[in-house]
Amino acid sequence: MEDKLRFESKLSKEEVQKNFEGMDFFSEVMSGLEEALDFAKGKARPTTVVRKRSLPDIDVAAERKALNLTQKGFASILGVSSRTVEAWEAGKSNPSPTARNLIYLISQDHSLIQKLQTIYE
Fold this sequence. Notes:
There is one protein chain. The chain has 7 helices and no strands. By secondary structure, it is mainly alpha-helical. The protein folds into 2 domains: 22-54; 60-120, lambda repressor-like DNA-binding domains (434 Repressor (Amino-terminal Domain), Orthogonal Bundle). Helix 4 (71-78) crosses helix 5 (82-90). The radius of gyration is 19 Å and the shape is extended. The chain starts with 12 loop residues before the first helix and ends with a helix.
């Protein structure tokens, strides 16, 4: 009997395609192969290998405004200071990968706001 690899997702086909827009798979594969070859030749150590992750693009101000929240309210939900949100929106700093992912998830499901608000009450 032939085993088949199955992939199931709650995302639609269009959402999956959007997540991979702009990715150059060939370059990513080539980069990984070059890193592996360098390691095999003794030019790199396993500790120097860095995972490359694709994070969602986030417009913090637009996401906050879409949720009809103040900077203070948005900061409270994310567990950061209002100055941090202000710096993100001004382009002075960027959200951490964890914050970026959380903002993305909230933007996809606004009901998460109520769930997160109950945590901090």
